[in-house]
């Protein structure tokens, strides 16, 4: 059992206590961040005259070799060490001798682990943002392709008004745009360096914390050492953002599952993103969409777990905070996998355009437009609403649609109907005359698509 402490103790730690206390099983994924932070720390120590140039050079060389060997697989991170910090420090001392013992000068594991996790999460924020951008690029391409693909829009999962696939997809584009904005805000807020905070009260060594922060790409040092080692707000915010991303993916997945059903047949999923049944040869199941929907709860669980862990912790560091990693790592991996696979699924998905248009025509989605038609003929809106309601009831009884009725049938309900009613309630007219910004009309959608293209072009952060 390799530990960084022990002088105060006269007995060996019980094996089960050691294993319960150890975190190397999951924090070993922080080895790159641990080495990056340690290199910056010793460069600063040498600049401040706390260690010699030769000692700094030996430490940096040793850390670089450790990183390269771990990456190549020639040096294994083993469970005999309590955590990744113990492993790196022990490997360094074996390699370069006493100079390695000076690496931890002016530093605590508390600010060390706070730094490692912050560096890791900062990179994860950028990675998730990049995956969201790739998804949005696919969505934008699909929007351009389906400007004239008519479909029913829904409220209460009932057909409401006609829209287009471009307009429907555009709603998710906006959701993912907000997700990226949240990630950007998190990055800005979290980008302050805890290194140099020590255990909780700083150190008597003349550290240059601003210099260390600049070496690691931070805006500056965290300004309160107690907060620096005990802050996990940034991780809670990130898990909250990941939960919102998963909520958006889950909503989208639910719609794809419905659209893929035999009753709707709006989409055809690619074979590469579907599975079959072990007993029913006709089945083609939307498993990726279902798994994305299912894994959403898994990410929510990580957020709730960390909120619950943090809610009763007094300042400053407590061992409870070791629980900030395992579920968080799983949530990050889950979201990245879901974004990657979901993007592949929708990029290969085919819209069944004829079925979508037929569904819009058969669901009285043009009823509001029929009422608006009567209003333009001088009928008060409330009266027009009542007239069209009676007309819909008539159509239901006859198993037909408004646009399939004869002019005589229409005029039997209201003498305001004229031959131009058929053009007024056609799918094309119902969609195209909606030209306000954000509406599904072709010109309005083209304007929005141009804006979204500019957004993706300019938003590289």
Describe the structure.
This protein is mainly alpha-helical and 461 residues long. The protein has a two-stranded antiparallel sheet with strand order 1-2. The chain has a two-stranded parallel sheet with strand order 3-4. A two-stranded antiparallel ribbon has the order 5-6. Helix 8 links the parallel strand 3 and strand 4. The longest helix is centred in the first third of the chain and has 37 residues. The protein is elongated.
Total of helices: 19
Largest sheet: 2 strands, antiparallel
Shape: elongated
Q: What is the H/E order?
A: HHHHHHEEHEHEHHEHHEHHHHHHH
Low-confidence stretches: none
What is the number of strand segments? 6
Distance between the termini: 43 Å
Residue-averaged pLDDT, rounded? 94
> How much helicity do the residues have?
55-70%
Strand order in space, largest sheet: 1-2
Gyration radius, rounded? 30 Å
Which structural class fits the helix and strand makeup? Answer: mainly alpha
Describe the structure using short key phrases.
461 residues; mainly alpha; two-stranded parallel sheet; 6 strands; 5% strand; elongated
Task: Give a short summary of the structure.
The protein is mainly alpha-helical and 461 residues long. Helices cover 61% and strands 5% of the residues.
Secondary structure topology:
Layout: H1 15-21, H2 24-27, H3 31-47, H4 53-72, H5 84-96, H6 109-145, E1 150-155, E2 158-164, H7 165-190, E3 192-193, H8 209-215, E4 220-221, H9 225-230, H10 233-259, E5 267-268, H11 287-310, H12 326-348, E6 350-351, H13 353-361, H14 367-376, H15 381-398, H16 407-413, H17 421-424, H18 427-432, H19 442-458
Parallel strand pairs: 3-4
Antiparallel strand pairs: 1-2, 5-6
């Amino acid at each position: 059992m390799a530990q960084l402490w022990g002088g105060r103790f006269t007995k060996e730690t019980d094996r089960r206590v050691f294993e319960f206390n150890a975190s190397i099983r999951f924090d070993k994924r922080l080895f790159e961040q641990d080495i990056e932070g340690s290199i910056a720390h010793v460069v600063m120590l040498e600049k401040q005259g706390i260690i010699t140039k030769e000692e700094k050079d030996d430490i940096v060389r040793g850390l670089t070799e450790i990183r390269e060997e771990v990456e190549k697989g020639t040096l294994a991170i083993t469970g005999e060490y309590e955590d990744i910090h113990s492993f790196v420090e022990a490997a360094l001392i074996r390699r370069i001798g006493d100079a390695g013992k000076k690496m931890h000068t002016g530093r605590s594991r508390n600010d060390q682990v706070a730094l490692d996790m912050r560096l890791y999460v900062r990179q994860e924020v950028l990675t998730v943002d990049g995956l969201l951008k790739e998804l949005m690029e696919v969505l934008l391409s699909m929007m351009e392709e389906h400007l004239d693909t008519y479909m029913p829009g829904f409220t209460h999962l009932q057909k409401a008004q006609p829209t287009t696939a471009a307009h429907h997809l555009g709603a998710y584009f906006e959701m993912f745009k907000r997700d990226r904005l949240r990630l950007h805000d998190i990055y800005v807020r979290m980008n302050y360096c805890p290194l140099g905070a020590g255990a909780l009260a700083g150190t008597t060594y003349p550290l240059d914390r601003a210099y260390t922060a600049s070496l690691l790409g931070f805006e500056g040092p965290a300004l309160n050492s107690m907060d620096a080692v005990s802050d996990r707000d940034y991780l809670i915010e990130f898990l909250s953002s990941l939960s919102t991303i998963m909520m958006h993916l889950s909503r989208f997945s639910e719609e794809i599952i419905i659209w893929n059903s035999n009753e709707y047949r709006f989409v055809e999923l690619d074979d590469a993103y579907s599975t079959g049944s072990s007993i029913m040869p006709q089945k083609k199941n939307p498993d990726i969409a279902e798994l994305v929907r299912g894994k959403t709860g898994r990410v929510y669980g990580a957020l709730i777990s960390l909120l619950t862990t943090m809610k009763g912790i007094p300042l400053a560091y407590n061992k409870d905070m070791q629980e900030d990693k395992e579920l968080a790592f799983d949530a990050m991996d889950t979201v990245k996998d879901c974004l990657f696979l979901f993007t592949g699924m929708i990029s290969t998905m085919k819209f069944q355009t004829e079925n979508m248009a037929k569904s819009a025509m058969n669901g009285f989605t043009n009823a509001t437009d029929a009422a608006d038609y009567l209003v333009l003929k001088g009928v008060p809106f409330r009266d027009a609403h009542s007239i069209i309601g009676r007309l819909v009831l008539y159509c239901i009884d006859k198993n037909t649609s408004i646009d399939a009725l004869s002019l005589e049938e229409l005029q039997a309900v209201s003498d305001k109907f004229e031959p131009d009613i058929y053009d007024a309630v056609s799918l094309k007219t119902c969609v195209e005359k909606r030209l306000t910004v954000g509406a599904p009309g072709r010109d309005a959608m083209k304007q929005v698509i141009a804006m979204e293209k500019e957004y993706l072009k300019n938003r590289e952060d």
